[in-house]
Each structure stands twice: as C-alpha cells, then as structure tokens.
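ok trying again, last paste got cut off:
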Amino acid sequence: MFGSSIIDIAIGMIFVYLLLSLVSSAANELIERYSRKRGHDLEKGIVEMLRSPDLVKRLYEHPIVYSLFAKPYNAGGKNLPSYIPARNFALALMDIAAPGGATGATELTSTSPVPVDFEKLKADISNNTILPPQIRQALTTFIDASGNNTAKVRENIENWFDSSMDRVSGTYKRRSQLIVLLIGLALSILLNVDSIALVRTLSTDRAMRDSLVAAAQEYAKSVPGSTPTPSPAASAVSSPRPQNSPSPSATPKSCGTDDTPECRVKKNLEEIKKLGLPIGWTREISDPADPRQFFGITPQGWTLRVLGWLLTALAISLDAPFWFDLLNKFIVVRSTVKPKEKSPEEKSKD
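nice, full thing came through this time. structure:
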C-alpha cells in the first residue's frame, strides 16, 4: 500500500507541474510575440554570417524572402520575419550573387544536374562587389564541392545556413529557458504553489490524492499516443516550418479554432483551479497547518515555503513534454502495481 501511495503522490505532482509548464510555455509565447526577439535574433545571426549590412538588406528585400513579411525591411525593426526557410535563403543569395540566366534561381531549384557554365558562375561571383570576400570564397567553395550539380550547390548553401543558425537557436533557447524559469517562479509565488506543502497534503489526504490521480489519468487519455509539442525554446529560429507551440491536444480542453497562447493560459489555469488543491492565498488562520495562509507563519515556515516555490519553479522549467512523458510512464507503473495489491499472490503450498 505504501508503494502505491508514493506512486499516486508522484502522479499528482507531475500532473500539477505539467499544467503549470503549459501555462508558462504559453506565457513565454506571448512575451516573444510582443517583444519580437525571435526576428531580431535571426537578423543578427544573418548579419554575422554575411558580414555586410548592405547584403543583408538586399537579401531581406529579395522577393523570395520579402514575401515572408508584409512591411518594408528596416534593420532592427519590429516587422522582421521570425524564420526564413533555408531554401529561400539559398535561392535569394545565389540570385544576388549571380543574377539572371542559367545561374539564377530557376536552375537551382532543379533536382537533377543542369547544364551550367560553372566557370562563368564562379567568375560572376568573384566580380560581384556586393559580396564580402569571405562570402565570395564560401560560395566558390560550395560550387567546387558540388560536382557541377546546381541542386548540390543549393543544398550546400542550405546546410551552411542551417549550421550558422544553430548558434542563433542556442542563444534563443537559453533566453527562453531563463524566461520560462522566471515565469515559473512568478506563478509559484502568485498561485502559492509550494511543492513541499503539496507533497505533505497529498501524503495525508487520500481523497485529494485519488481525485488528482483520476484527473491525471483522464488527461492522459485525452491525448493518446502523443505528447505536448515543445515550446518555442526547443525550436530552431531558422526553421522553415511554422514555429512550434503547444497543440490543442496539450490543453485540458481544446480551444477549438481559438488555439492561441492566451487561450491556453486560461484553459490550463482553469484546470488547475478545478483540482481543488491547497494553493493560493488566504488571510484567515482557521487552521495553522493551512499552506494557503499569509499571516502567522514562522521564519522556519517561510524558509520552507520559499524552498517549495523554488522547487516548483525548477520543475516548471523542465517544460511540458518532459512531464507529459513522465506522467504516462508513472500511470503505466501504477496500472501494474495496483492489481498486484488487490490480488496478492498466494503463498505456495508444500
């Protein structure tokens, strides 16, 4: 019985962390949306890669890239695209380096070798004064390594772009992780989600423990065979795919067509509230052991509470996919432990 209680407590805590992580991830999306840091990070990475503000401006104003955002390009502006597909980058750069004719973007879209005067192509690149010397050398190297295959040239440039953006993605991911951690700490304090107090309550209140486990199992059933999509912190800034965000299946109830960060924050907060957990704040001191009270707490009690908040914030920073996978694993373990407790094996008879 003791073993199953520990598992139930773990499932309950994991479920709470999962919901809070989804709230934190959605809040981070809102911050990124209004701060537009993703687009600035991408532009900064491309500037460092191409080593020429004028070349970067031409790249952003090329029709293949310009179509990704509506307003005129302004360096450091608020309307920068949050991602650029590697193919768009490669086609636009080659068209700037050697515009028109057989060396233009049309030939580079081919999936098979196309007759191209590669010596003339390299000469055009070498004579292009728009390109910095390092970029001319890089493009010439890609052509030499292509085996006279235009599709391979494009692929080499795409790989170059992706590898250069890995550093940008790492910077973005580290910043997002810090933001999620700070949001998690703010949620822990504002909602008074004290991990230590929650574990104590769940260890003594079987009814709440069973209710929380039932809610967790119901949640896991609502998204069978899938996990919440990673937050933007896990997404590459330069990815050609739409930016990842928690999917409708990652929320307690689908937001329908209104699958916005605001909707996901609201839905998950509502789900937490419905759990009836001893979280939040109260001015009344009806029970000295009530973790929700604000007054009448000893210095030792405040120390434990702050420690509980920090534990909650650190747990939230691990992100929703981690907690969802862990939740499913513990539910599987519980399903194997419970039947054995209900029907213990009979001792063998001599």
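cool. The longest helix spans residues 150-190. Residues 37-169 form one domain.
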